[in-house]
Amino acid sequence: MRARLGWLAAAAAVLAGTLLPGTAAAESNGGVRVMPLGDSITEGTQVPGGYRIGLWQRVSAGGYQVDFVGSQSNGPASLGDHDHEGHPGWRIDQIDANIVSWLRTSTPHTVLLHIGTNDILQNYNVSGAPARLSALVDHITATAPDAEVFVATIIPLANSGQEAAGRTFNATIPGMVQSKQNGGKHVHLVNMHDALTTADLIDGVHPTATGYDKMAAVWYSALQAVPGSIGTPGQSSARQLVGTQSGRCADVPAATDGTPVQLADCAGAPWTPSGKQLTTAGNKCLDASGQGTADGTPVIIWTCSGQANQQWNVNADGTITGVQSGRCLDATGQGTTAGTRLILWACHGQANQKWTLRAAP
After folding, report:
1. What confidence tens digit (pLDDT) does each residue in 122-144 have?
2. Residue 18 backbone dihedrals phi, psi, to 5 degrees
3. Which GO terms describe its molecular function (predicted)?
4. How much is the pTM?
């Protein structure tokens, strides 16, 4: 997900602090730019991050490089990239009024559009909603003609009258999408409605965590079906973590929980940046043992949990600091030999606390 050059300089601003709802922070610096676009269901009301959590996890596990983009940001640490363009309470016309500027700012290659629920809930000229959606899609394709635009049917609503109106609206979407395709546009239909039932709703409108994950699975399947929409699997963003003083790499001799991280001769590229986490062996994270924050706390790997002891700030000065502890990743005793274990230590700026994330030669 990160470019080979410039990752460290950008990461200082990217990985600092806990992301709360608000302005996006441009966490990713490489990969296919994907804009999750819509209302509160994109934002993740009731379950912050919403479907984006499960989609991010699936994309990462699949070896894709993806950069979520948008002017908004929210979600838990387990969501590696918090950027999105989800606006709670917004209707189609409100999204349409802003879409051109958003697209010009974020320049996505792929757009995930789920919108129309608030038109139904607000009973806002419901009969005109299909035409508004069609116009919105036209504005997206005109502004970003090479973008892949995925248009989802809206998910079910618990209120029977609103659900009936939603079904009527949804019934118009396949024909609209087909007409855009006939015109040579990169527009794709996503049947999101049928993936959920009202049992998947927490409040009659917004999904439960399980419901959002069902949405994630549908988005991921749709993206995989369109070549290039999320890049090519296997082209991972894995990096070597190279000690400035030693010239050796941080690595682990095994992939079991609790394995100490130590210096080793560089071979391969075991670490994949994912938001504030550095992952290895699929689902293991660089971890401060026992959530320790004191000098000398061993650095190990552990199954990724998203907790603060597994989050790291990669700083422009070459240090890597624990979000929870504020201490630096350190080669014990300024050691440079293979087998030297890594620990947390108060930052002092010496070379045994300086690191470079680089692609394998």
Report:
1. 999 999 999 999 999 999 999 99
2. -95, 130
3. phosphatidylcholine lysophospholipase activity
4. 0.64
On whether the CB atoms of residues 176 and 137 are closer than 8 A, the answer is yes
pLDDT band for position 20 (50/70/90)?
Answer: very low
Torsion of Cα atoms, 248 then 310 then 44 then 186, to 10°: 10
Residue 63 and residue 238 in contact, taking contact as beta carbons nearer than 8 Å? no
Orientation angle between helical segments 129-143 and 160-182, nearest 10 degrees? 40
- Asked whether the predicted pLDDT for residue 25 surpasses 50, the reply is no
Copy the structure tokens of residue 106: 């974020």
